[in-house]
Amino acid sequence: QVELVESGGGLVQPGGSLRLSCAASGSIFSIITMRWYRQAPGKERDLVAAITSGGTTTYADSVKGRFAISRDNAKNTMYLQMNSLKPEDTAVYYCRAVISINGNPGNYWGQGTQVTVSS
Predict the structure, then answer these.
(1) DSSP state of 54
(2) What is the sign, positive or negative, of the torsion defined by CA atoms of 5, 9, 90, 36?
(3) Where are the beta strands (DSSP E) in the chain?
(4) Strand 113-117 and strand 104-109: pairing?
(5) Confidence of residue 4 (pLDDT cuts 50, 70, 90)
(6) What pLDDT, on a 0 to 100 scale, did the predictor assign at position 68?
(7) Cα-flanking dihedrals φ and ψ of residue 44, to 5°?
(8) Which residues contact 84 (CB under 8 A, 6 or more apart)?
(9) pLDDT in tens, 77-97
(10) Cα–Cα distance measured from residue 93 to residue 46, given in angstroms and rounded to the nearest whole number
């Protein structure tokens, strides 16, 4: 059994910063790729950023230069540092990870954390 738990969301003013965390727990053999997604009301869930086990990162064009994804492999935790936040960043943010359990990889999702950017 594997669980992903996000934290760090909240209400912030435009131009502010937040740091999201995604902690994985359970019978984990290895974590391969970890990703952050977001879903605004009435819209599809979109990929925000991704990071491989080796630390290679990719970002959506809308967040390049403002967001930074990182991971602590020893803690099975991924982070998303969000700076210069805009109202259009308002969404529920979800983490997703490809996790190997005893050599069998599978996709896992967290429950989501709300980020609201508003004055």
Answers:
(1) T
(2) negative
(3) 2-7, 10-12, 18-26, 30-39, 46-51, 57-59, 67-72, 77-82, 91-101, 104-109, 113-117
(4) unpaired
(5) very high
(6) 98
(7) -75, 160
(8) 15, 17, 66
(9) 999 999 999 999 999 999 999
(10) 10
